[in-house]
Amino acid sequence: MVEYPKRPEIFNQRLEAARALQVAGGSENWNRAVSTCENLLDEFGLDPRVLNVMGVPLRMLNRQYEAIQAFSLAAAKTDDWEVRLTAISGLIDAWRTAGRDKTFPVPQYVKETEKTAYLHTSALFFIPIAESVMTDAMSNLGINSNLAYVEAYTQFGLLYNDMGMSPEALDAYTTAEDNARKLVTTDTDNGRYQNRLARVLHVKGVTQQTMGMIREARASQDEALPIFRKQGDMQNLCNVLASEGDLSEIESQLDTARTYWEEGLAIARTGNRLYIPHFEGRLARL
């Protein structure tokens, strides 16, 4: 079981502050989130919930090796199924994207041309483990919907999508969406539920676009967009604006595409600078 700190109010406030920085996005905020978590670990010990929160901005900063260490330690230090599932989902994400970490150690026997397949196979290893945790939670605890389920199935979908397995990705995203909608129905004011629903709608829309399901992709992105706007989730807002513009370009609505991409570029210039080349490259096509 997770051992709760002696000053839970201070602990929870700081942990939520780290989550808020992560959502705000941008390298500066992600670094501040990591620092906040490191301070929490120094003060309260190796709490697996803090390790899980810290792993996300580490991954966003392309420090995947450190993220894997954080998630692995979180999974090892907890008997709480939800905390463990969150850590396993983080491991899938970190291994999937480990190629973005220029210093990520890969065994010498793995050729450069085999690196992506090696990382994807490493990520795939954790899917049956995550499924087992969810099965136990449903069978033994009667938990049928949970935010950790949403994140797990979203990570399954992202991995399948990167591997070119679009139908499998769409199935995983649909399961994540169904779980997210159930949660939103139970608490319509819960910002985390809304955010996870919007995130899975966005990535589902990307796969729908890949599969030529343009109308369905537009519906997914259109539903996600106002949620991210309202929450000020600039990172995911940039993602959706890029996708909305891509769909408009496919439909030969070039002025509309320009509007989406120019808005995304303006947001990127205020803090999410990693997105600047993505929008500049799109605008150069027009």
Number of helices: 14
Overall radius of gyration: 19 Å
Low-confidence blocks of residues: none
| Second-tier CATH architecture of the domain at 1-117 | Alpha Horseshoe
Helix-strand sequence: HHHHHHHHHHHHHH
Labels describing this entry:
single chain, Serine Threonine Protein Phosphatase 5, Tetratricopeptide repeat, 14 helices
Give a structural overview.
The chain is mainly α and 286 residues long. It has a domain at 1-117: Alpha Horseshoe (Serine Threonine Protein Phosphatase 5, Tetratricopeptide repeat). 77% of the residues lie in helices and 0% in strands. The protein has 14 helices and no strands. Helix 4 (64-76) runs antiparallel to helix 5 (81-96). The longest helix has 21 residues, at 166-186.
Could you write a compact summary of the structure shown?
This protein has 286 residues and is mostly helical. The chain has a domain at 1-117: Tetratricopeptide repeat domain (Serine Threonine Protein Phosphatase 5, Tetratricopeptide repeat, Alpha Horseshoe), CATH 1.25.40. It has helices at residues 8-24, 27-44, 48-60, 64-76, 81-96, 115-124, 127-141, 147-162, 166-186, 191-210, 214-231, 234-250, 254-269, 276-285.
